[in-house]
Amino acid sequence: MSPTYVLMSILLCQRKAIIVSCVFAMIKIVTLSFGPLFHYAFIKVAEGRQVINYEVCVLTGGLLFAKCLESLAERQWFFRARLIDMDNRASDCYCAFALMIIYNTIGLAMFPTLFLVALSMLGNSLVAKLQH
Fold first, then answer.
1. Which of 20, 7, 4, 6 is nearest to 83 (CA)?
2. Where are the transmembrane segments (predicted)?
3. Neighbouring C-beta atoms of residue 31, cutoff 10 Å
4. I want to staple 24 with a disulfide (CB 3.0 to 4.6 A). Which of 32, 71, 77, 114 is the partner?
5. How many domains are there within the chain?
6. Confidence tier at 112 by pLDDT (50, 70, 90)
């Protein structure tokens, strides 16, 4: 099996989780890029070039909201990435275990063993989906 097929199978199996993780990463990057704009506006207000009477309050609230959103997006992004990694590691372990059983068993004992491995893999994937 070539690495391309392995990558495509991971992408197809985890596409929803990858898309959600990418959305959180995009929110993190956008809010991170707004930080300098808020700081520049604070400098303008501090120098006395205030346009609106409540500009300081609006800037403070906007900066607080952006930083909270940035922190939340970063935490969710890392959390989702870890979940994807754990799902892939579990699948890799099951595949390695199944291959080990195939190579080590002889005759008719191989088929019930493979059936049990596939059944446990299916059961664990259903439980993992319920946890999400």
1. 20
2. 17-39, 51-73, 94-122
3. 19
4. 77
5. 1
6. confident
